[in-house]
Amino acid sequence: MDDLAYRLLDYVCRNVSYKSDNGEFWELPVEVLTEKASDCDGTTLLLVSMLRRFYPADRVYAVVGSYRGYGHAWVELDGEILETTYTSARPVADPQQYRAYARFNDQEVIELWPRSMSRLFQLAHNEGLKLALMTEAVGNYRYSDLPESCVCESCGYELLNSGAHCREIGCPRCGGVMWRKK
């Protein structure tokens, strides 16, 4: 993921809080920005609309499918999963747990096998369990104990007052692993 995509993902993650789904109502990006809260569908559509201003349609897709067997939505940019429900931008810890059923953007809809969309809507939508699984995937953290700064183990880049635990953040400079500064 290049720097522009990283910054856009990070903006969505840091500025839109996750809220549980009430049925399958998909909010427009302007509604998500106004409310500053949405589920995976809303944050996915917001990020796709932002990315499409800078990237061609064949590189950016909203994806609907499953995460650990539960209905979920995410963004793909050049085939890389961008998870909009994290609290900050970072690589997905367990991409093998994501299963795409359909990809779409403002130009096309791609159903990945016949009747895959009907299978998607049969999946359970247990928001509490979905959040617990995602938390487990990235590790359990105490958010009351945030570090004052994080340092990249690869290039030494220091990030002050990140608002997140260091392991949640990829280095903005090189993508390396960030650690709490001692």
Plain-language structure description:
- The protein has 182 residues and is of the alpha+beta class.
- It has two domains: 3-138, Roll (C8orf32 fold), CATH 3.10.620.30; 149-180, no CATH class.
- 27% of the residues lie in helices and 24% in strands.
- It has helices spanning 3-15, 29-35, 40-51, 116-120, 127-138; strands at residues 17-18, 37-38, 60-67, 70-77, 80-82, 98-104, 109-111, 149-152, 158-160, 178-180.
- α2 (29-35) links the parallel β1 (17-18) and β2 (37-38).
- The relative contact order is 0.14.
- The model is unreliable at 138-145 (pLDDT under 50).
Task: Produce the secondary structure layout.
Blueprint: H1 3-15, E1 17-18, H2 29-35, E2 37-38, H3 40-51, E3 60-67, E4 70-77, E5 80-82, E6 98-104, E7 109-111, H4 116-120, H5 127-138, E8 149-152, E9 158-160, E10 178-180
